[in-house]
């Protein structure tokens, strides 16, 4: 068979050869052109019509322990956009920045800066359930500027809070889990990237911050640093360091009007969060201590230092009190002993690093009109509240009932201006709502991406009243995950036990310091008896051993967990309406046990506030 016609000329063959060669070149060039929708960084030119950030970048946080990445941002509530600036100290072949539900590398919303070996590209991307990265068909990260400066390589970009893209993360109030990664070699194609194969990490921030300007401090304000005493940080991943700070003797009453963090230069990426607690005034002397909070040899009196004065976490800005209120420090009824607690997160196991980080308190002798107070809401620290093992989602709710608020709140009500949520390691979400007259009136605070490793206070603006007809009700609902646990998790103070707490900051201060609940213990014993009989165990030891032991002895299956959930949602509760002296308010005995089904209905079955009759 002939392939060529014998009449085909050499000229025709030459034309066919060069045509095929040209087609091959087009294919090769096309394969190295910018991926669809990605921005070729080198071709980015300044655009005068492009909106620049409305303000300087007031919020910033180091992302990695070495400080190679720093994220700064500003919020435009008018445009519902966030402007972000990423500084890369030493750019190699690219970086990855993204957001996911709890810091997972899978199913994440990403932006990627990468180079193919010849060109650099910037694009909106996403990862699948195995960490494989793909360019997003809808590009929602708008690159404004990319520039090399003396301090590093800077990327300036913006993104809407919500993009209506199902693959994008919705930026909302509460914790945002930021993931990051470094590219150490060129990528011929972004689709060849798998996040599990590069160096990555996670950081947590509050993206959406109030856009109100800070108030002016009084002219006679003074400063007090409560800081670690030049501590040598242990070369371990997690350390909680405790230090007892003594206030001057006979310190007169002052008002704390502001506080902020004081971080030792160079340790910004290691000091994770800091808290200052006031010790109980009933303890006349607290011994000096500087060491691990987990040391079993630490003085037992440190356990009586639990009244929160100040709390800071990485990325948080200064905390200001309202102009009419301040937190009392000194004077009668206060303690001169403070406990500083610093959490060091040192995943690189750096050794020999010294630290003197802590909290700077700004206080004034010119007392404001109101003393501010801190009230604990949620669940009592008791093992009668428990979470079954192997649970993807389990809810516990704590109540501050109308009987307590009617008794303890002043006739003029109180103003809540800030809130701080708290759980231990199994906590995944916290929500506190205000119910008035049978309606869900307002969300006090909510964080459905909550992390025990990032517990920053959030500013609020809420009025609570004492009403003789109804009274205000506060319900705090916590979400837990125990899929990694084979034993039940009970309530308590230990890190492997659980809490469900919201510390609300308010004024004027009242004697009400704790407004919490737990399930009635008599009904819990009926639960133990029923479950044991159901599983064929007629020798119930209910009441003969501790509640913790009774929970651990149960046969945990799906039925056992479902019945416990039903118990917590239907059984009567016992209220703790405590004064600052730890004694109960004089509430009638029958008022301390409630059947809260209708209150729960306002929260769980009628989230839109449908009218209910209590």
UniProtKB/TrEMBL annotation:
One of its GO terms (molecular function) is copper ion binding. Residues 67-183 form the DOMON domain. Pathway: Catecholamine biosynthesis; (R)-noradrenaline biosynthesis; (R)-noradrenaline from dopamine: step 1/1. It catalyses: dopamine + 2 L-ascorbate + O2 = (R)-noradrenaline + 2 monodehydro-L-ascorbate radical + H2O. It is an enzyme of class 1 (oxidoreductase). Its EC number is 1.14.17.1. It comes from the Eukaryota. It is a single-pass type II membrane protein. Pfam families: Cu2_monoox_C (PF03712), Cu2_monooxygen (PF01082), DOMON (PF03351). The chain crosses the membrane at residues 12-32. Gene3D superfamilies: 2.60.120.230, Copper type II, ascorbate-dependent monooxygenase, N-terminal domain (2.60.120.310). Keywords: Catecholamine biosynthesis, Copper, Cytoplasmic vesicle, Disulfide bond, Glycoprotein, Membrane, Metal-binding, Monooxygenase, Oxidoreductase, Signal-anchor, Transmembrane, Transmembrane helix, Vitamin C. InterPro entries: Cu2_ascorb_mOase-like_C (IPR014784), Cu2_ascorb_mOase_N (IPR000323), Cu2_ascorb_mOase_N_sf (IPR036939), Cu2_monoox_C (IPR024548), DBH-like (IPR000945), DOH_DOMON (IPR045266), DOMON_domain (IPR005018), PHM/PNGase_F_dom_sf (IPR008977). It is found in: Cytoplasmic vesicle, Secretory vesicle, Chromaffin granule lumen; Cytoplasmic vesicle, Secretory vesicle, Chromaffin granule membrane. GO terms for cellular component: chromaffin granule lumen; chromaffin granule membrane; extracellular space. One of its GO terms (biological process) is norepinephrine biosynthetic process. Catalyzes the hydroxylation of dopamine to noradrenaline (also known as norepinephrine), and is thus vital for regulation of these neurotransmitters. PANTHER family: DOPAMINE BETA HYDROXYLASE RELATED, DOPAMINE BETA-HYDROXYLASE. Belongs to the copper type II ascorbate-dependent monooxygenase family. This is Dopamine beta-hydroxylase. It comes from Oreochromis niloticus (Nile tilapia).
């Amino acid at each position: 068979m002939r392939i060529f016609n014998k009449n085909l000329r050499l000229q025709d063959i030459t034309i066919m050869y060069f045509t095929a060669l040209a087609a091959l070149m087009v294919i090769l060039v096309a394969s190295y052109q910018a991926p669809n929708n990605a921005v070729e960084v080198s071709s980015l030119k300044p655009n005068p019509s492009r909106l620049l950030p409305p303000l300087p970048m007031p919020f910033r946080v180091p992302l990695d322990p070495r400080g190679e990445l720093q994220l700064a941002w500003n919020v435009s509530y008018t445009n519902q956009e966030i402007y972000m600036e990423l500084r890369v100290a030493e750019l190699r072949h690219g970086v990855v920045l993204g957001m996911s539900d709890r810091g997972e590398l899978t199913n994440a919303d990403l932006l990627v800066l990468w180079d193919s070996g010849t060109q650099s590209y910037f694009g909106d991307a996403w990862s699948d359930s195995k960490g494989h990265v793909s360019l997003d068909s809808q590009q929602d990260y708008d690159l404004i500027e990319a520039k090399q400066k003396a301090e590093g390589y800077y990327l300036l970009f913006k993104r809407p809070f919500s993009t209506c893209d199902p693959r994008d993360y919705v930026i909302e109030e509460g914790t945002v889990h930021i993931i990051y990664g470094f590219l150490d070699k060129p990528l011929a194609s972004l689709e060849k990237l798998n996040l599990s194969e590069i160096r990555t990490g996670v950081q947590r921030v509050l993206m959406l911050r109030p856009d109100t300007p800070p108030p002016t401090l009084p002219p006679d304000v003074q400063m007090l640093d409560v800081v670690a005493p030049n501590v040598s940080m242990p070369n371990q991943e997690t350390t909680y360091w405790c230090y007892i700070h003594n206030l001057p003797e006979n310190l007169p009453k002052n008002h704390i009007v502001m506080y902020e963090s004081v971080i030792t230069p160079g340790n910004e990426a290691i000091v994770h969060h800091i808290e200052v607690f006031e010790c109980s005034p009933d303890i006349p002397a607290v011994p000096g201590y500087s060491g691990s909070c987990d040391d079993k040899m630490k003085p037992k009196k440190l356990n009586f230092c639990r009244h929160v004065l100040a709390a800071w976490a990485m990325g948080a800005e200064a905390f200001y009190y309202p102009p009419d209120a301040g937190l009392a420090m000194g004077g009668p009824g206060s303690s001169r002993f403070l406990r500083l607690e610093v959490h060091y997160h040192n995943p690189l196991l750096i050794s020999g690093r010294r630290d003197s980080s802590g909290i700077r308190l700004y206080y004034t002798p010119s007392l404001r009109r109101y003393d501010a107070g801190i009230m604990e809401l949620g669940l009592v620290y008791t093992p009668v509240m428990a979470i079954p093992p192997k649970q993807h989602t389990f809810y516990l709710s704590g109540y501050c009932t109308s009987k307590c608020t009617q008794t303890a709140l002043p006739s003029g009500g109180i103003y809540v201006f800030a809130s701080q949520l708290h759980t231990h390691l199994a906590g995944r979400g916290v929500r506190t709502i205000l119910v008035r007259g049978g309606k869900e009136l307002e969300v006090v605070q909510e964080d459905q991406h909550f992390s025990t490793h990032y517990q920053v206070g959030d500013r609020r603006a809420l009025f609570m009243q004492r009403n003789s007809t109804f009274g205000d009700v506060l319900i705090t609902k916590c979400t837990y995950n125990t899929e990694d646990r084979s034993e039940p998790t009970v309530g308590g103070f230990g890190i492997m036990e659980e809490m469900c707490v919201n510390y609300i900051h308010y004024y004027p201060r009242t004697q009400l310091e704790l407004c919490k609940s737990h399930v009635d213990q008599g009904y819990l014993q009926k639960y133990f008896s029923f479950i044991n009989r159901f599983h064929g165990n007629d020798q119930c030891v209910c009441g003969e051993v501790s509640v913790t032991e009774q929970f651990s002895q149960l046969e945990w299956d799906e039925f056992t967990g479902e019945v416990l959930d039903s118990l917590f949602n239907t059984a009567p509760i016992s209220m703790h309406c405590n004064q600052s002296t730890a004694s109960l308010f004089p509430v009638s005995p029958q008022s301390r046990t409630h059947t809260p089904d209708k209150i729960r209905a306002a929260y769980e079955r009628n989230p839109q506030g449908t009218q209910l009759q209590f």
